[in-house]
Amino acid sequence: MELKAAGITDVGLKRESNEDYFSIDNALGLYIVADGMGGHLAGEVASKVAVEVINKNVNRWISQNTPDDELFDYPDSALSKRGNYILSGIKLANRVIYELSKVYSEYKGMGTTIVVLSVTASLTIASNVGDSRLYLIRGNTIEPLSKEHNMVTEQLEMGLISEEEAEVSPLRHILTRNLGSSDTVDVDVFEIEPRNNDRFLLCTDGLTDLVSDKEILEIVQNGEDPEHLCRQLIVKANAMGGNDNVTASLIFVHNLEQENQGIVKKFWSRSK
Question: How does pLDDT run across 48-58, given as a tens digit for each residue?
Fold first, then answer.
């Protein structure tokens, strides 16, 4: 299997600083995007800490084949071994950010969203907290592999508002979950089999607030260079107003030896 990936982050047109952060590790098949929040650089710190804590520890656990009972917090029996590594990494990052915000006054109230993708020849793992998104582009379809944790999503699930009302609701940016606001966090994890030519997009809401799923699909399908396509997504978001920092990371799957059937596990695992 060959993985081809690129990512770009941009401050946008309205913000003075960039609180987004991302990482790409093709050797491990691990990709992370975070969107920080908090006053005076605290958001920048939160997003960077989250990405680096997850990347460092998941790398270490995989290389050492760490057993589940030695991970941070309790493993989830429904998940694969690597799924538990990612789950544990996110929970550890949450605790680190939470403790930093308690110890240092300048970091009080800081937090971040997180979205993590792991791709191996046999399994794709998607995990998130907050409203940054992960999409699977397969053929002519685009499907979210993340769940938004905000007030609007909760209202939609309860049938209190329509899709049209949700798009313009002032509550769509009020998060119900993020890293750093509590010493524990619920994490959603989604596992599927990869297919040849799958494309994955990790992005912050600076993109999805301004560019529709249909427009994203049209851009991502139209080329073979992930860096060029990331740039096109950034340009599109800025052309639509550039109201926020915007980050896009694209991963293409090629030369998968076995042709998987598609989804073999499709579940959200939520646990503390």
Answer: 999 999 999 99
Q: How far apart are CA 123 and CA 83, in angstroms?
A: 10
N-terminal to C-terminal alpha carbon distance within the chain: 34
In order, the DSSP letters of 176-189 are: S--BTSSSS--EEE
Domain ranges of the chain: 2-258
Q: List C-alpha distances in Å: 223 to 79, 205, 228.
A: 34, 23, 8
| Measured distance CA(48)–CA(36) in Å, rounded | 8
- Cβ density class 258-270: b for 16+ within 10 Å, e for less: eebeeeebeeebe
Q: Phi and psi dihedrals of 233, rounded to 5?
A: -65, -40
Residue pair 11/17 in contact (Cβ under 8 Å)? The answer is yes
Instruction: Answer yes or no: CATH 1.20.120.530 is held by domain 2-258.
Output: no
pTM score, two decimals? 0.94
Q: Return the amino acid letter for 248.
A: A
